[in-house]
Design a protein that fits this description.
The protein is of the alpha/beta class and 319 residues long. The chain is built from nine helices and 14 strands. The protein folds into two domains: 211 residues, Alpha-Beta Complex (DHBP synthase), CATH 3.90.870.10; 75 residues, 3-Layer(aba) Sandwich (Rossmann fold). The structure holds threonylcarbamoyladenylate and magnesium ion.
Length: 319
């Protein structure tokens, strides 16, 4: 079969058809890592029960081992085997899964995952993605998959297979190409507490969306060190300086535009924030690869998903 000749470690992009998904499931069972699309960004997946496989994720990304991973599940019953769901968690899952939302919940004492996945925390981040390729791979493999974003640690997240290849190519034996990610920003991360809920990372599902479902406002963030290590500064960072809210770029700047400010790459000429979110990381990858010495970004309204866009842009300015 055509997959038999692949030498591991050479960054191999294949269209995510049935044969490729079957091969990817075999790779995962063999303890290998595979890059796969979700509706938010591409993930770098491994069998969540296999310590060696999970170690390969950390090694490929150069990720610090105190930064835990999201576990992707095939359905709600798989999620309940890993985490303790209270009533609020059930309601949020029911409303937004499958979809671009991750829940941080107490870890089940006997959860079938290797310890490195949660970096020793008493909680676990779980997501049920709606992407057909992720769903097919979960079904085909029968595994739960640990999968952070498929970029070098601290770098720009990938929303296309070619971004994964450029960033991690040599370290990933197989990259399933499912086309560009529809949402384009990482999932909203919601932590469930005894007394309510908290947004750990803004994303495609907004606080207003969640409030409508649970009937109460989010708690004010309490603990920003261990709870959201990936939320620290210098994340999503291009290799160049980034200047925000620019309406008139300097001659040496590569301008990421929005609406009437066109720039070198317009996130959305019509000023549509969902379209801007879907294009953001592609624009940042282009800006980073360009000959320009620095990057400028047009103002993006801070409403709806624009809040998550500005969150990523602000982190991109910290180097
Ligand atoms: O859209 C997404 O969420 C993508 C796709 C592939 O699912 N994944 C993703 O993973 O963005 P990653 O590893 O790049 O970001 C996950 C974030 C990190 O900031 C990590 O620190 C946090 O989730 N996290 C994981 N487990 C946690 C836990 N138990 N408590 C708090 N934060 C946690
Ligand atoms: Mg990430």
């Amino acid at each position: 079969m055509m997959f038999g000749s692949n030498t591991l470690g050479n960054g191999w992009v294949v269209p995510a058809d049935d044969a490729a998904i079957t091969a990817a499931a075999q790779f995962l069972h063999a303890g290998q890592i595979v890059a796969i699309p979700t509706e938010t960004v591409y993930g770098l997946a491994a069998d969540a029960q296999n310590a060696d496989a999970v170690a390969r994720i950390y090694a490929a990304k150069g990720r610090p081992d105190f930064n835990p991973l999201i576990v992707h599940v095939a359905d709600i019953s798989a999620a309940r085997k890993l985490a303790v769901f209270n009533d609020m968690a059930e309601r949020i899952a029911d409303a937004f899964w499958p979809g671009p939302l991750t829940l941080v919940l107490p870890l089940q004492p006997d959860a079938p995952i290797t310890r490195a996945v949660t970096a020793g925390l008493p909680t676990i981040a779980i997501r049920w993605s709606a992407h057909p390729v992720m769903q097919a791979l979960l079904a085909k493999s029968g595994l739960s998959l640990a999968a952070p974003s498929a970029n070098p640690s601290g770098g720009i997240s990938p929303t296309r297979a070619e971004h994964v290849l450029a960033g991690l190519g040599g370290a990933v034996p197989m990259i399933l190409d499912g086309g560009p990610c529809a949402a384009g920003l990482e999932s909203t991360i919601v932590a469930i507490r005894d007394d309510g809920w908290e947004i750990l990372r803004p994303g495609p599902v907004t606080p207003e969306d969640i409030e409508r479902v649970v009937g109460c406002k989010p708690l004010v963030a309490q603990n920003t060190t261990i709870e959201a290590p990936g939320q620290m500064s210098s994340h999503y960072a291009p290799t160049k300086p980034v200047r925000l809210n620019v309406t008139a770029p300097e001659p040496a700047e590569w301008l990421i535009g929005f609406g009437s400010i066109s720039g070198d790459y317009n996130l959305s000429a019509s000023g549509n924030l969902a379209q801007a979110a879907a294009n953001l990381f592609d624009a940042m990858h282009h800006a980073d690869a360009s000959a320009a010495r620095s990057i400028a970004v047009a103002p993006i309204p801070r409403e709806g998903i624009g809040i998550a866009i500005n969150d990523r842009l602000n982190r991109a300015t910290v180097r």
